Amino acid sequence: MEEIKIFAPATLANLSCGFDVLGCCLDNVGDEMYIKKNNVNQVRITRITGQVLPMETLNNVAGVAVQALLENLNSTQGFDIEIDKHIKPGSGIGSSAASSAGAVYAVNKLLEEPFTIKELIPFAMEGERLASGNAHADNVAPALMGGFNLVRSYQPLEVVSLPSPPQLRVVILHPLIELKTKDSRSILKQSVYLKDAVSQWGNLGALISALYTEDYELLGRSLEDKIIEPVRSILIPFFDDLKKVALENGALGFGISGSGPSVFAMCKGDTVAASVKEAMQLFYQEKGIDFDLHQSEINTQGIKIL
Amino acid sequence: MEEIKIFAPATLANLSCGFDVLGCCLDNVGDEMYIKKNNVNQVRITRITGQVLPMETLNNVAGVAVQALLENLNSTQGFDIEIDKHIKPGSGIGSSAASSAGAVYAVNKLLEEPFTIKELIPFAMEGERLASGNAHADNVAPALMGGFNLVRSYQPLEVVSLPSPPQLRVVILHPLIELKTKDSRSILKQSVYLKDAVSQWGNLGALISALYTEDYELLGRSLEDKIIEPVRSILIPFFDDLKKVALENGALGFGISGSGPSVFAMCKGDTVAASVKEAMQLFYQEKGIDFDLHQSEINTQGIKIL
C-alpha cells in the first residue's frame, strides 16, 4: 500500500470524574487525512486545509508523532501528509490528538503494521506533548482504540479498554472562544482536598461499573466533578446555566470536554440527545455567542479507513 | 420467627486505591450472633464472649444500629442480642461493622423484613459512627451485601454492587498491636497532590474494570495506593518487607486492610494463597511479633443464617 485516506475522530477526555485518565471516541466529528509514501526520505506536511497550523514537520503534531514512530523503527521511509481539519484547535475535543493519532495509524498501515494499535499510543502522545506541553493519552488512546478508554498508569503506560453502552449519545457545544490547554491547565491547583478526591474516585468507580452494566442512570449520577469543573467552568460562558438547560431537557450528565471550552451532554438515545441539542442551541443563540454544535454516537472503532 | 442465629463476616475496606469507597466481604472470618425478641420493649446486649466490649445498648455498636432501625419504624419491639466475637476490635477487618450489620440484618429478619438489605446500610452505619466517629459504609455495605461494593456517594447514600472474580483469595495478617480507626485517620493529611489523586482514580477505575473482566493481573497492578499507604504503613511493623514477601510469593497485590494494622494479600487461587500465607507467617514469626492469620474466599452472600 502506497497511500491511505482516513477519518481521524474527535474525542472527549476527562468526562467529569475521570480527569486525565478517561476518554471516549466520537463519530461524525473529525478530520480527514491523506497520507502517502514519498521517496525523499522525509516526513512532510504537504497540505493543511480548514485551519492555519504549522507546516514544519517538527512543529506539527502529526509530524512529530510520525517522526517518533519512524525513529523507533530506524526507518528512513518518507511520507507526505495532508490534513483536512474539521476539528478546531483549542476546542477541547482532541484536535491535536486526531492529527497525531491519525498520522501514526496511517503510517503504521502503510508500513504493513509493525505495531499493534495499542503500541501506537506512545508515538501519538508525542504530538500531545508538542501541543500542550504534556504527553497525555486520554485523547489519543480513544482516537486510536475507539470507545471508552482508561489510562491506568503512565509509568509504565497502561491503557484499559472499556465497553460502550449502545444507546449513549453525546451532544458537544463548542463556544467559539479559544482556550489553550496550557492555560486551562495552569489555573488548576496542585493540591486538592482528600474528601473531594475520595468523592471523585467514588464517582469514577461507579462510572466504570455503569459502562459494564449499561446502567445509564448511574452513569449520569457519576458524571460529577468536584475538583476540576468548579475551577475551569469559570472560563466557559454561562456554564452553569447551560448545564441546567441540558439536565432539564433530559441529559444524563453534563461537563467540560477535555480542558474546554467545549462542553458535553451525555444522553440516552437519539430522541433525548436531539432535544438536549436543540435546547442548548436556543439558549446559546439567545446569549449571542457563536458556537459549533455536534451530536454523536460513541465511535467504537476509532480511526476509519475511507 | 422469634430468634435467629447468624454469621456476621469480617470485611476488607479501602483495598489500596479505593480509600473510603471500596470494600469486600470475607468468608470463614467473622462473629456469631444470636438475637431473639424479648417482651420488655428494650434492646439489650445480654452476652458478649471473646472480647470485652460495652454492654450498655447505646455504647454498643450493635445496640445503636438496632435502635436506629427501630426508631425509623417507630417500633417498640425489644430484642436480646448475644455476640460471640471472633473478630478482634481494632484489627482493621471490620469488627464493629460485623456487629452492626449482623444486628440490623437479624432484627430485620425477625420483623419480617420491613427493609431490603440495601436499606439496612444506613442503620448499620450508626454503629460505625459510634466506633470511629465517622459513619462510613465501606465495611457495613459488603458485610450486608456480600462481594465487592463501592460507595459512590454519601449524600445521598449510593452503594454499587460489583462482581467478584471467582478465583480471588485473600490472606489477612493481623499484627497484634491495637490501632484505633480514629487515631489511624487522624494522621492522614487533609490535602493531597492532584497528580497522586489522578493516579489513585486511574487505579481504582482499572480495579473496577478488572472485577468485571476477571483480569487478575490487572487487578493486581491496580492495587496501588500513593496517598494513604505511605502514611499509614509506618504504623504497621515491617510493612514494606511483608509486602515484598507476599509479592515475591505470587500475591497479585498487597495493602493495608481498612485503617490497619491488618494487612491483606490478594491472590489468585488456593495454592498461591496458601504459599503466600505460609511465607507471611514465617516472616512474622522470625520477627517475633504476635499475629493472627486468615485465608478466605470472597464471600458473595454476606451475612449467613446459621
From TrEMBL, chains A, B:
Pathway: Amino-acid biosynthesis; L-threonine biosynthesis; L-threonine from L-aspartate: step 4/5
Domain GHMP kinase N-terminal: 64-147
A cellular component annotation (GO) from this entry: cytoplasm
Molecular function in Gene Ontology: ATP binding; homoserine kinase activity
Alphabetical list of SUPFAM superfamilies matching this protein: GHMP Kinase, C-terminal domain, Ribosomal protein S5 domain 2-like
Domain GHMP kinase C-terminal, residue spans: 207-284
Cited InterPro entries: GHMP_kinase_C_dom, GHMP_kinase_C_sf, GHMP_kinase_N_dom, Homoserine_kinase, Ribosomal_Su5_D2-typ_SF, Ribsml_uS5_D2-typ_fold_subgr
Superkingdom classification of source: Bacteria
Keywords recorded for this protein, A-Z: Amino-acid biosynthesis, ATP-binding, Cytoplasm, Kinase, Nucleotide-binding, Threonine biosynthesis, Transferase
GO biological process: threonine biosynthetic process
Catalytic activity as recorded in UniProt: L-homoserine + ATP = O-phospho-L-homoserine + ADP + H(+)
Principal location: cytoplasm
Signal sequence, start to end: none
Compartments, as annotated in UniProt: Cytoplasm
This enzyme's EC code(s): 2.7.1.39
Gene3D superfamilies the record matches: 3.30.230.10, GHMP kinase, C-terminal domain
HAMAP family cross-referenced by the UniProt entry: Homoser_kinase
Functional summary from the UniProt entry: Catalyzes the ATP-dependent phosphorylation of L-homoserine to L-homoserine phosphate.
Family: Belongs to the GHMP kinase family. Homoserine kinase subfamily.
Designated name of the protein: Homoserine kinase
Source lineage: Bacteria, Pseudomonadati, Bacteroidota, Flavobacteriia, Flavobacteriales
Encoding gene (name): thrB
